[in-house]
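Reopening closed ticket. The problem is back. First fold of the pair:
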Amino acid sequence: MRPTFSRTAAALALCAVSFTALAADAAPNAASRRLHQLVDADWQWQLQEYPEFATSLGDNRFNDRLTDQSATAVARRSAHQQAFHLALQSIAENQLRGQDRITLEILHSNDAQAERLKRIYGKLPFSASDDWMVLSQMDGIHQSLPALAKASPFNTVRDYENYLKRLAALPTHLAQLTLRMQQGIQSGWMPPAIALRAVPEQIATHLETDPQKAILYRPFLDMPATISAAEQSRLQAAGRSAIADSVVPSFTKLQRFMIEKYLPACRTELGATTLPGGAAFYQAMINGQTTTNLSPKEIHELGLKEVARINAEMDATMRSTGFKGDRAAFQHFINTDAQFTFTRGSDMLARYRDIAKRADAELPRFFAELPRLPYGIRAMEAYEGDNAAHYTSGSAKGGRAGYFEANVNNPTKSTWYGMESLVMHEAVPGHHLQIARAQELQGLPEFRKNSNFNAYAEGWALYAESLGGELGMYTDPYSKFGQLAGEMWRATRLVIDTGIHAFGWSRDQAIAYKETNAAASHEEAVAEIDRYIVWPGQALGYKLGELRIKALRAKASAALGERFDLRKFHNAVLDNGALPLDVLDQQIDLWIAQQQKTAS
């Protein structure tokens, strides 16, 4: 429930109080009260400090601003982070119980990661919460701003005026980001040029000279009838001016800087270990993205084993189709033959929606409780090109459903054999089910309802793909091959990510490995490898998280025998919100013990 104004004002006022003062003010041994004060204060600070995040959650108090990326703001966030770190040390963990204990463990995990990065970054002009790479082909203001517009409400005059203020703030915001990029050049914290080559073209989508055709003008094209005609006309004129005077000139400057200054200064080396932070930086990325302490070597070797196992299953599935030829020929056949491809994007959408409906009907057999927030399936924007399909979270507070954003931009190059597993991953029982369930949990602090631990979230989504067979999917060998190809896609990431960032793999070597093992076209392999290059460690979370959840399921099943209830197990995994994997281990152990006690 959204807090009242008075409670919100009080919470924001609390943010101005030092964490040290909060700890000192608490009653002796009142560890729980102290923890709640710290968490509530920090949450309100996060929403105010990162207004785009607040908007995405349906909190519209700060919809008139963009995140301050100035040096002063970065220093302020670093100081806040340090104060929070010190405050956490004052919490008596042995006095906490239940969800409070989990909350503190999560905070300690986050805090440990921030401290790792602080040691690596030192006195550089960015912090653990303000990354050094502000633009890439995968992420950045050129992509996040249209998504922010989609997440923003446009029901009242004030909503539109807030949006106009955001557009007016864009020149300052982009100038601040440009300064950060200049500091990156000076410090040597630079991404590889090869992976960022498409960014100038991506920025060009914001350089439309006719304001009414601009992506960011879309909210003004279909305004609600509750706004008078005169006000609509005024706001639309202001929107056109904002596009012409703020958006186009500032993105033009950013594009020019990228082409003339930033890209020429980018690295030729690929590996994260070649950055100034060295091997410690890549290990920190592994720690943060996987919430494990596994080494690059351990992950690489695990990946090789998984690739070998899945390869054998893919070969067996291929043979079951009666295909005469090797795997390379089979992959070419199913990627190009007309029986597997589409002619219209609308046909792809219809098929995705049919799969989702079939999955929805089976969910009660696998979950004791399901989220109420609905989801939809819609086409990705044309300007997103060949980027991967993805999930956009909804918000009950904001009145938005979740959406599986399906890429139907090139139907003749798209195949149906992997569609079932993709729906399982992005919609249900994958991302939508997990994220919507977390948002609706009662008795948890708000930050936990909206946390995103990569290995947990992506591990759950990949585990959800594996549930497809039990849900009644993958009944033909081609769809089963598609599911295995998706699993192989993630297994090769363990090998390639560590290969690039720790073991000196070349880009061509990584592309060839992807093509050979993961049923990938050359274009798909190139896009994937460039993703790993700019997101070191991120791609590791999928397989490591999935394997952990599968191991926990096997452990629980063995311990409980006939008393094992898969529906209850799934809710045990989901019903604490996203967790670091070690904390998830602890919670499932407790759940097993509780089930055994109940049965006895």
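Second fold of the pair, where the issue appears:
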Amino acid sequence: MKRLLAASLLALTACEAPPVHAIPEYDGALPAVDAPLDALTHRLAQIRERLRLRGYEELPRQARTFTLEEHATVLPLDLPGGGCSTFVGLGSTAIRDLALTLSDGDGNALATEDVPGEGGLVHVCPPNEEGSMPAYLVVEAREGGGTVALAEFRSALGGGAGFDGLFDGVLAPREPFADVEDLLARSRTTLRARGFVPVLTPAIDAVGEGGSVRSTVPMLRGRCYVVVSRTAASIHDADLFLFDPDGVEVGRDIGQGNEPSIEHCPETTGSFGIEARAFQGGGALGLMVMEGAGPDTEAPALVSPDDFDEVEDPSVLIGTMAAVLLPLGFEPPVFVTRSAPIVPSEARMHEIVVRPGCALLVATGSSGSMDVDLYLSDEQGRELDSDTAIRASAVVRECHDTEAVLRVAVKAYGHEGSYALAVLRAPSTIRGIEGLRLAEASAPFRARGYAPRETFEVELDEGARSARDVFVRPGRCVALIAAGTEEMRDVDLHLLDRGGTTLASDSAPQPFASGSFCAGAEPLALTLEVIANVGSGRVSVTVLEGGAPR
């Protein structure tokens, strides 16, 4: 949910044209907002002083707002004529790329910024000599999210000394993460071949020498984990540390080099702390955790498209994904393309016709080092779904009552290669996005012999959580799947023991979550927590039961 920090801010998506009738009358430009004297205020003050020294007159009122990645905050303005207006914005360092766009009352762009990083500036000289014209200032975080501080300046036509070097020394150093993401993807492919699967979304950040990236991960007794850190070339030596739930160090890799890793099979269940530290040099630092079978258990036989390093025909990987869905009544995949070439950062568009009902649209890359993203829109260009997770496969979902024409955009990052795109129609018993999400998340467990035990529903507002008792019979395992309706964009799931220790958790940024746990010789009483992280509405929870691992 977008936050409005000034009464005049309207929250719109970046692709929507601002409605002309929504423009209020202002006696000035930006609404006055008292800004605390924090680091962001001090950094913006440097830019404001530089503009004043270059001959630009600062208007007395400023604004501060909050924006999220892929969403925009839109500020309606009365843009005065008879001169030029300059709007400058600076985001917190959590925003890695800020975009400013100044549009007229019809939504046509008058000026856009091209400043890399968390700074933005637009400058326009309206043709009207007198009066004002309706306009919109669109503030968007293209990458990241956080607070944005804004200021406005006026100048005469031809006035001011320009904007070259305005942001020098103020913006955070640009640290490309693509190389680190690629290195983590290579390690992930190698570990998947050993039966390990990702536990958390990889954490990547820009750090200076001595800086660190930290994370907390739930680890289960009887399972094994690999913690991996990879860095940019500018970090020459990185160290890695693992701490048990009591904060005691239980593993470390402090050898020379920037590819540390730790393998650990915990004897107790609990939340373990991880820290990757840049010992020599600074730059992008990444951290990843993978989970696998314990020393006395067998790794699951299931594979996913991300298990493969390189393939000539990526369509065979879609067949691998479909294999666990076919027993649930899904139809075999219908291919839009079996092997289409694509280069990093390229977008390929497809139009498809879908019959009434529900379906999954699946894309897979030909290399485990590729990052494939999918965007699904209707015929008018309105986005219906997207999958931008960092992995070699992507899935979007659609349900229609009538035949429809859909547009699918495939984007790839990382290595050059090819991709396959296919439609997997769901059985007629699945009538909505919620059912698709449940089937997709439960399919791997069902393929391992789990069977449905019960299903229940909860209604949650954004940020709210629901708790429920779950019992595990001796020698049995339970898998819990939570999936939200179309309005629910991020659902989290936590499985806790009676002491409040997390036994299993899924906090990935996706609209469904899953977790599983097995009982020994004694029955277990657990607490299931379901959280509506982003969005509000109904969440369906399915409890599956299976035999304990051998």
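Update: turned out to be a display glitch only; the data is intact. Residues 1-37, 298-303 have pLDDT under 50 and may be disordered. The chain has four helices and 35 strands. Please close again.
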